[in-house]
Amino acid sequence: MLLASLLVPAIFCANTASGAYVVPVADGSGGWADALAKAKALVSQMTLEEKLNITQQNNDFPRVGEVNRLGYTGLFYADGAEGVRGAPYSSAFPMALNGAGSFDRDLMYRRAVAIGQEARAKGINVQFGPGVNILRSPGAGRAFKYNGADPYLSGQAAAEHVKGVQSQGVMSTMRHYIGNEQETGRRWTSSNIDDRTAHEVYIWPFQDAVHAGVASTMCAYNGVNGSYACSNPTSLGKWLHEELKFQGWVMSDFGAIVQGQEVNSANAGTDTVIGATFTAYTDDFVQGFVYPFGPDSVLASAVANGTVSESRIDDMAHRIVSAWYKLGQDKEYPKLNTSVNALSQEHNDLIREIGSKSIVLLKNDDLLPLSGTQSLYVFGQAASVDLYGAPYPVSFAFSPDQDMGTFLGGQGSSYVTAPYAITLFQALQSHARAHSTQVFGYFDNFNHTNQAAYAAIANTAGAACLVDVRHTCSEGYDRENLTASWEGDETILSVASQCSNTAVIYSSCGPFNVSSWSDHPNVTAILDAGGLGQEAGNSLVDVLFGVVNPSARLPYTIAHKLEDYPALPDFEIQPLNTSFQDVEYTEGLFVDYRWFDKNGIEPAFEFGFGLSYTTFNYSNLNIQSSTANLNQYAPANSTELYDCLALVTIDVCNSGNLAGSEIPQLYIGSPADGAPIKALRGFDTVGLDVRAKKKVEFQLTRRDLSFWDTYNAGWTLPDGEYKVYVGASSRDIRETGTFSLLH
Ligand SMILES: *[C@@H]1O[C@H](CO)[C@@H](O)[C@H](O)[C@H]1NC(C)=O
Ligand SMILES: *[C@@H]1O[C@H](CO)[C@@H](O)[C@H](O)[C@H]1NC(C)=O
Ligand SMILES: *[C@@H]1O[C@H](CO)[C@@H](O)[C@H](O)[C@H]1NC(C)=O
Ligand SMILES: *[C@@H]1O[C@H](CO)[C@@H](O)[C@H](O)[C@H]1NC(C)=O
Ligand SMILES: *[C@@H]1O[C@H](CO)[C@@H](O)[C@H](O)[C@H]1NC(C)=O
Ligand SMILES: *[C@@H]1O[C@H](CO)[C@@H](O)[C@H](O)[C@H]1NC(C)=O
Ligand SMILES: *[C@@H]1O[C@H](CO)[C@@H](O)[C@H](O)[C@H]1NC(C)=O
Ligand SMILES: *[C@@H]1O[C@H](CO)[C@@H](O)[C@H](O)[C@H]1NC(C)=O
Ligand SMILES: *[C@@H]1O[C@H](CO)[C@@H](O)[C@H](O)[C@H]1NC(C)=O
Ligand SMILES: *[C@@H]1O[C@H](CO)[C@@H](O)[C@H](O)[C@H]1NC(C)=O
Ligand SMILES: *[C@@H]1O[C@H](CO)[C@@H](O)[C@H](O)[C@H]1NC(C)=O
To answer: Are 725 and 736 in contact (CB under 8 A)?
Structure first.
């Protein structure tokens, strides 16, 4: 006893005395060995100054340093969650959140391939995305860059995105690692997440991106447990580098290395900085645009006095250069020219397809699909161009006041200036011309008691009304409410009081407030459009007229009341200049639908919900599970986490009168203590002709079936029986079963 109690503090002291945490060096595992060997050979010829030079983005924006004499070109990067940002002639794709809502892996992949093609055409080496933070609170400003509220969905989308972009030889960047779930006070909040929740919810999608071979990681602005994400030895060092064995390079978010954290950041595993130094706990640049890394920096002086070792600098350079080799960028990579025209008809068509396959049909009392011959009355500020005359139908809105025109996607630093944009009204006009019908537009929400329009509607047999509203969203702030802007609700209610066939279309970056009109008897259709990109109007028209049978699902829950959600951003947070403001992730594992299930809260529309113009039935659930005597425990860095331990199959049949696609979803009820009632662990997209039937297969991996065991710090298969739920949403469960594993 005595000996032990003396030893523990002694070891603790020895560790602190010998310096801060130092992240392990890249070891070439997971398929990186060749690239690492080449990188080591090249870096061994670099001087210390050159090595430091390639760890910084200096004034040569947007490039992370080069070493010209050795033929190392450096890395040009571009932001973007909706395409290649900051360059003319780039396509404006639907938001990442729309990609997730398609629940269609192939579409997610093709979206990423196209973005990768545009980046490569312009000579961009590194394309930022996927964003894989979790839509923890409904108004989160950057939610449009993310893949919704569920870690499994987010992880699947992340993997497809990484594979797609990197198939073009372009590096993909997973971000914002980790805990950047709100914009409010993002530089001075600390996201406090318990260990199990961190692993089962927040690290999870990053793990899938690493498994898919992602080349780079962007660390976040915020703190995690009171220590900056970019200098956090637990989240960056232990989780990312030791547990996930990440072999690529870590860059900071723009200016995320704050003054005083240069040494800790380097030692925790940040390899590169983007942007200059900020003062801690504020939104202010250090005067004079100071770079924290580079040949003439705090990092350089830390190397000189030994607080950062030269081997850490070598490892930084190895990681950066090995990613360059891994993606084949040492060979004939296009020279940077952001003016290169990367647009193509093929990409326009793909954008239209992703758009129509990501519009979620939430309600349909026989209004849709519209017949080709109806007269249409179109209302709402989002159906046309900006009434205040912005050059594009979408305004670059850092401010929620600028919420006019067709909504193409989330705003802020990753916003792509669309080369063109099709509004709903334009697309309807083209359709009306082709079908000799009439379409009328009234876009000023403040003129919603428009008696002339209402008289015309009353006198037109079979007239249908469309109301297109929005609530903009952007990096930099969170939405304080989810309600349609510019008196959208009043417009909807006014139109619905006069028009018995009213379809509401809304756009935003996540959940919307539908509570004052979703049950109105004259609101006979509701569409959640998200942000559709440059083909917005055409994608909507394809769904409205049934050219495309909708199949998308909500990647988040739509609640009746704001208070029903487990977490909301704390809008009262102010900088203190001296410490972090805590954001406690008290809901733990119970994010989104898991919270509604646990607390018996009825949502307006649940996670995974979405209608079609046809119907599907499910039959013949079959479960096969491993009969081997399994090891119950697998360490965090185990290579067995993606092994398949159970196989579930089910038949899905199109029982309606129209061809369409169904999205069967598999949820697991784990016997582990404290597990959610249901957690998504599988989904598929099944296209079926009328009366056609197909067997769908879901593979469940060791990680899918394990819980994070904080005591053993690893993944453990729980004792007991697993429940299997297969259905059309998180609440529309069609078949259930159980299985057990031997251990
Ligand atoms: C450092 O990199 C920049 C490009 O980012 C380049 O212009 C400069 O020549 C490099 N300096 C050295 C010493 O290689
Ligand atoms: C944060 O603190 C919780 C509770 O002590 C712990 O479980 C978790 O691992 C910590 N995370 C980090 C990044 O230190
Ligand atoms: C070494 O240099 C770093 C960076 O300038 C500084 O923060 C640290 O205090 C120095 N340490 C010693 C022991 O001189
Ligand atoms: C960049 O691309 C544009 C458009 O193709 C072209 O006009 C221009 O000459 C190119 N610039 C360079 C430096 O190659
Ligand atoms: C309201 O709409 C009517 C019909 O479109 C139009 O004549 C009138 O000028 C509008 N009123 C305002 C205040 O914009
Ligand atoms: C919602 O928030 C916006 C600001 O983002 C504000 O202009 C609007 O009045 C709010 N709406 C409601 C219904 O509170
Ligand atoms: C529905 O629309 C009709 C007009 O077609 C109107 O008479 C009726 O009052 C509306 N219903 C409601 C509840 O507003
Ligand atoms: C919708 O708005 C109403 C009225 O402001 C509010 O009571 C309700 O909580 C809101 N619901 C959501 C999901 O934001
Ligand atoms: C915090 O920093 C800001 C900006 O540098 C300054 O204006 C403010 O007075 C500071 N507040 C405190 C409490 O020191
Ligand atoms: C996992 O980590 C342990 C402890 O650091 C180490 O001994 C082991 O070799 C690692 N296994 C793999 C597969 O990397
Ligand atoms: C599913 O629908 C098909 C086609 O209508 C029908 O033949 C079959 O009996 C249905 N199966 C179930 C289980 O309802």
So the answer is: yes
